[in-house]
Every structure is written in structure tokens, then in C-alpha cells.
Specification:
- By secondary structure, the protein is mainly alpha-helical.
- It has a domain at about 5-65: Winged helix-like DNA-binding domain superfamily/Winged helix DNA-binding domain (Arc Repressor Mutant, subunit A, Orthogonal Bundle).
- The protein has 6 helices and 3 strands.
- It has helices at about 5-15, 25-30, 35-45, 80-110, 115-120, 130-150, and strands at about 20, 50, 65.
- Strands 1-3-2 form a 3-stranded antiparallel beta sheet.
- The longest helix has 28 residues, at about 80-110.
- The two termini are about 30 Å apart.
- The model has no long low-confidence stretch (mean pLDDT about 85).
Length: about 170
């Protein structure tokens, strides 16, 4: 959990979704130093989220890849104060990332091509559902989202980066 509770580490994992990369390549694409990306890659490796791509590496460059294409983090509180603190930090990082995506959307939507203006949306719905119904809804949404999480060579030439958020949060009375 602690490995994920850092904004740069989440950005690195998202970037590696497009395929293996070196710390230097990641540093350039994320606007960070190669020292920072290298350090965070090692921390992600210790936690099992990334691994060295030995087929690409050489004495000069270490290539890294995600060890799993997809992972979910349990939001269940634990009887472990350190885990709970890391979970709280991860939640903050995710909410901050989502707020940044919203701010970028609102500041650029007027300049976006008309077709993007027509398909972009924000929504919020209140439903009455059981845990099993939400579990099934989540599975369908995640399955469809995963189809769009393609590597750079699998993307259509006109594909653009789109921030997608999904939440199903019980609202106590």
C-alpha cells in the first residue's frame, strides 16, 4: 500500500501501461529527474508492481515493465495503523489526480474539437443497489475500461488521452 501512496509512482504505473520504459524515458515523459524515476521504480519493484525487463536491458539501460496489467486496491480499513495511513494517502493522491483532470478539462473544453465536446461528460447518479449488484456493475465497467487501456502500438492513430473516473460509494443515512 505504501508503494502506491505516492503521486509519481501512480503516474509511473500509468505510463508503463503503454509498454516498458527506462527511468530516463519515464523522466522525460513525466517531467521529472531520472534520479527520481529510478528511485520510485525500485520502490515499485520492491512492492511487486514493476519488474526489470531483462530482454531489453543492457549494461547501460535498465528497462522496466508492469508486473501486472491491472490491480485493485482494497479500501477496507485494516487493523494496521500504518496500512490505514498509507490507504488514506493513496485516497488523497487519487482524489487530487481526479481534481487535476477536472481542472484541465474545464480549462480546455472550449478549445477542444467539437466531437470531443459532444462525447465528454460528467455525471453523478444516486441508485439503490445491493453489494452484489455493485460488484457486477464494477466488473462490467472495469472490463470495458481495460479494453481501452492499450499500449502505444495498439492505439488507433486518432486516439487521445481521456481521464475516466468511476466510483460507487455507499452513502450512509
Amino acid at each position: 500500500m505504501r508503494a502506491l501512496a505516492h503521486p509519481l509512482r501512480l503516474r509511473i504505473l500509468e505510463e508503463l501501461r503503454g509498454g516498458p520504459a527506462t527511468a530516463s524515458t519515464l523522466a522525460r515523459s513525466l517531467g521529472e529527474s531520472s534520479g527520481a524515476t529510478s528511485y520510485h521504480l525500485r520502490e515499485l519493484a520492491k512492492a511487486g508492481f514493476v519488474e526489470e525487463d531483462t530482454e531489453r536491458g543492457n549494461a547501460r539501460d535498465r528497462w522496466w515493465r508492469r508486473s501486472t496489467p491491472f490491480f485493485l486496491v482494497s479500501t477496507d480499513p485494516a487493523d494496521d495503523a500504518e496500512y490505514d495511513a498509507a490507504l488514506s494517502q493513496l485516497r488523497s493522491v487519487i482524489v487530487e489526480r481526479d481534481e487535476g483532470a477536472l481542472a484541465r478539462y474545464f480549462s480546455t473544453i472550449r478549445d477542444a474539437p467539437k466531437e470531443w465536446q459532444e462525447v465528454s461528460f460528467l455525471g453523478g447518479w444516486t441508485v439503490f443497489a445491493t453489494p452484489d449488484e455493485i460488484r457486477r456493475l464494477s466488473a462490467v465497467v472495469l472490463e470495458e475500461l481495460d479494453k481501452l487501456r492499450r499500449t502505444a502500438d495498439e492505439r488507433p492513430p486518432d486516439a487521445e488521452q481521456v481521464a475516466v473516473t468511476f466510483r460507487a460509494l455507499r452513502q450512509p443515512k
